[in-house]
Amino acid sequence: MAEPILTLSGVKADIEQYHILHGVDLVVPRGELTVLLGRNGAGKSTSLRTIMGLTNLTGGSITYQGQDISRWPTPKIARAGIAFVPESMGIFGLLTVRENLVLAAVSGPMDEARLQWIFDLFPPLKKFWDKPAGTLSGGQKQMLAIARAVIEPRDLLLVDEPTKGLAPAIINDLADAFEQLKEQQVSILLVEQNFNFSRRLGQSVAVMNDGAVVHSGTMAELSENEELQQELLGLGLGAHQ
Ligand SMILES: Nc1ncnc2c1ncn2[C@@H]1O[C@H](COP(=O)(O)OP(=O)(O)OP(=O)(O)O)[C@@H](O)[C@H]1O
Fold it and tell me: Start and end of every ABC transporter domain (predicted)?
């Protein structure tokens, strides 16, 4: 396994009076795509938010590129190179695709070579460059949200359930784009519920249940073991969704 870019050790987090994360242990290897799976309410989104400093960490530690970022404020975490695409995507519907990307490039004008790289990853963004983002399809909006996150170089990309509500053909386009990001050794932590999408892309996998990671290993191992899938994810034998 590659060296870790991010390590969560015994991470606990509360939302208001509720204890949501009960000691999350998670390793994200550098240059790989790691999938965080688990049923609804297992704590996947809360784990991403806690990494970004958006949810109150009450115990344990988060180490990123050798630094303890557990108590860092969110802007400092973002500046250190972690990009976050929340489930709500955070794009501006009334602004054009171009304007959405211009606003995301906070350090200065967009880099032309990087923009070309983004167009290669997500061709619809070039096609709809001057269209309001609100008129894009669900999959294209997701592409724009990811493009905003990587319009400037980032070391780690956190993406929360990009396939949610998307048609199968669009999910396939999105998987192709993630394949390309993977080929370029971008470190990615992907929260997902769609097991077929996850197994196609994931190298490492962690499964959460009730606020903790209950399994971690290679995706190849989980992908081959239907009993383990049934036990951890409640997937019917041979019935992958
Ligand atoms: N704002 C909140 N107030 C109270 N409880 C919350 C809040 N947000 C999340 N929770 C609870 O925290 C737990 C974990 O939620 P989380 O969204 O992290 O789960 P998840 O694994 O991402 O699931 P999903 O796929 O449904 O988003 C759930 O029991 C949820 O009800």
Answer: 6-235
